[in-house]
Amino acid sequence: MTKLELQYEGKSKQIFRTDDEGKVVIRFKDDATAFYNIKRAKIENKGKMNCAISSMLLGYLNEHGVATHYVEQVADDEQLCRVVEHIPLEIIVRNIIAGSMAKRLGLEEGLEPENTIFDLCLRGEELGDPLINDHHAVALGLASYDELAKIYEISAKANLLLQEVLAQAGITLVDFKIEFGRDAEGNLVLADELTPDTCRLWDTATGERMDKDRFRRDLGHVRETYEEVAKRIANVLK
Q1: Handedness of CA 103, 106, 108, 112 (dihedral sign)
Q2: Which of 22, 29, 56, 105 is 20 to 30 A from 112, alpha carbon to alpha carbon?
């Protein structure tokens, strides 16, 4: 496999074509952004840590029956992934109430609902990634009802698997956001990263935040915390 020209660059990742039309190389950048790119910084080794964390967690899901776009890690900050038809929807899986949901509904962070909460958002920064419902998604032609049911099913299974492995690392999975795509056969696959940028993670013993909230809320020690997350997961999955 040979990495070719840059195909797309986003806030935190670059996507490169390869000599295999069915695969791309995704490079994780050291850039950190928040509040729709209003707050920006570069954090040393962030790309390497996020690549390592996402590679371990996506590989774990692949091995346990949740299909993802991830193939293998090919460099310290690069993954080889399958090309998929991206679905412009975002699923937020919430085990504990925190972040935007707490603010939106006037709830205290840390409340644990009896059920797992699934939020559906339309991807689009110009609109602020608004919350929508299944009927909106179908009306917009983004997914069928059957596909949405499958997306929730896959998200629920991924949630249980991630909760289990992170618990062994002393980390509580508060919430996470993921996106999906359709592979060459039309099958739904998880097509996103799983990192402290996209998952809200709390230290189980202390409640200390181990995710992007350290950057959003100026808590400091972002690099050290990401390195700690990577180390703990590696110790569990070694």
Answers
A1: negative
A2: 56
